[in-house]
Amino acid sequence: MITVGVIGSTGYAGAELMRLLCRHPHVEKILAASHSYVGDPFSQIYPNFNKIFDAPCQASDMATLAKQCDLLFLSLPHGISSQHVTEAMVEECLIIDLGADFRFSDVSVYETWYKTNHKNHHLLAKAVYGLCELNRQQIKTSRLIANPGCYTTCSILTTYPLLAKDLIDADTVVIDAKSGVSGAGRGEKLGSMFCESNESIKPYGVTTHRHTPEIEEQLSLAQSHGTQNSGVIISFTPHLVPMNRGILATVYAKLRPGVTQTDVEDAYATSYKNEQFVRVLPYGNFPETRWVKGSNYCDIGFTIDQRTQRIVACGALDNLVKGAAGQAVQNMNILFGFEEATGLDAISAFPL
Predict the structure, then answer these.
(1) Are 159 and 290 in a shared domain?
(2) pLDDT at 226
(3) Domains in the chain: how many in total?
(4) In terms of domains, do 56 and 119 share one?
(5) What is the structure's pLDDT at 338?
(6) Residue-wise pLDDT tens digits, 66-80
(7) Distance CA 119, CA 83 (A)
(8) Is residue 344 within 8 Å of 330, Cβ to Cβ?
(9) Looking at the structure, do residues 112 and 204 belong to the same domain, yes or no?
(10) Does residue 294 contact residue 349 with C-beta atoms inside 8 Å?
């Protein structure tokens, strides 16, 4: 039984973490921390927690909470974790950061795309990129986990086997992705308001979205089989769609000469046959966000366009679960040697 802390517990990803942790059989105690709601009962902020978690929110003091917890989840905007996480904290308790501060091996990439200085770049060497299906062995022995983002998780899982098996031309990868509004967080933003986003779809961060280099770094490792950065460059365009939850990423790429449907099916099967949370659909079937909503699953489907010799592969997941909190709990399970699916076996509810 473990004690965990959640800093940023009142944001969307933080609240999803709380929901998953409250039903986790190996979590004995949860310390919910918030910057804006110190002293307020958590169930007053989120009434769905009435009689489930009524404890008041604590102050977001990382150093203090690290002394009280076996593991600390950080669900914070970028730039905050790197200011406050220290070597001493990492030695004191395990840390899973849901933000972007420790996702890059090269600090200059982070600072260029996020337009801020990294305050503890020496810790990057200690961090493991927490995409469980790809880095399970490294996660087991790490004390600092960089939990991937939602667009990145969906895009990487959908594309990784194709590059790892050298089935596509890396220079031709285009990713067109759609996200529900919760991906923008709970803070007040004009573009997230009902009248601004309902009955509309819009691209944003075109050529500049911060998840782009994160996807590129991990796909470069796929192409080089983890030995060196081969410099995969992609075109990535995200879109906001008027739904609460969900990510759908459509990947386009040119197939290598002679690559067949069977080759692609074998690549996905080899990569994910033992992965509970990745479901590869039969050829020609495609995922929908409604079938993964509220679950920790990522569904993947593909087809081959014989006319253009391109593959079109689609991935779908819940941005707050597999794209954030669920993946964080999956990382926690790996770290503590729990069954990996513990607390994450919920089936998507439909209709919802």
Answers:
(1) yes
(2) 55
(3) 2
(4) yes
(5) 98
(6) 999 999 999 998 889
(7) 5
(8) yes
(9) no
(10) yes
Let me know: does 58 contact 4? Beta carbons within 8 Å: no
Asked if residue 82 and residue 30 are part of one domain, the reply reads yes
CA distances to 214, 226, 300 from 111, in Å: 13, 23, 32
Q: Last residue of some domain: 107, 125, 143? A: 125
CB 284 within 8 A of CB 306: no
Say which of 132, 150, 298, 314 is annotated catalytic: 150
Extract the residue ranges of the chain whose pLDDT is less than 50: none
Res 20: pLDDT? 98
Q: Is 150 a catalytic residue?
A: yes
- Going across the sheet that includes 298-305, the strands are 202-203, 235-240, 174-179, 247-254, 310-317, 298-305, 278-280
Which pLDDT belongs to residue 249?
A: 98
Query: Do 119 and 185 share a structural domain?
Result: no
Strands 298-305 and 310-317: antiparallel
Q: Of 125, 140, 167, which residue is a domain's last?
A: 125
CA dihedral 224, 228, 234, 239 (to 10 degrees): 100
Question: Which candidate, 17, 31, 24, 145, places its Cα nearest to that of 75?
Answer: 17
CATH number, domain with residue 87: 3.40.50.720
Q: Considering the entire predicted model, what is its pTM? A: 0.95
Are residues 179 and 108 both part of a single domain?
Answer: no
Tell me which residue range forms the domain holding 268.
Answer: 151-319
Do 170 and 110 fall into the same domain?
no
* CATH number of the domain bearing residue 196: 3.30.360.10
Q: Where are the beta strands (DSSP E) in 198-331?
A: 202-203, 235-240, 247-254, 278-280, 298-305, 310-317
Residues 6+ apart with CB under 8 A from 112: none
Residue for token digits 């022995």?
141
Amino acid, single-letter form, for residue 87: E
- 């099967």: which residue's tokens? 269
Name the CA radius of gyration of the chain, rounded: 20
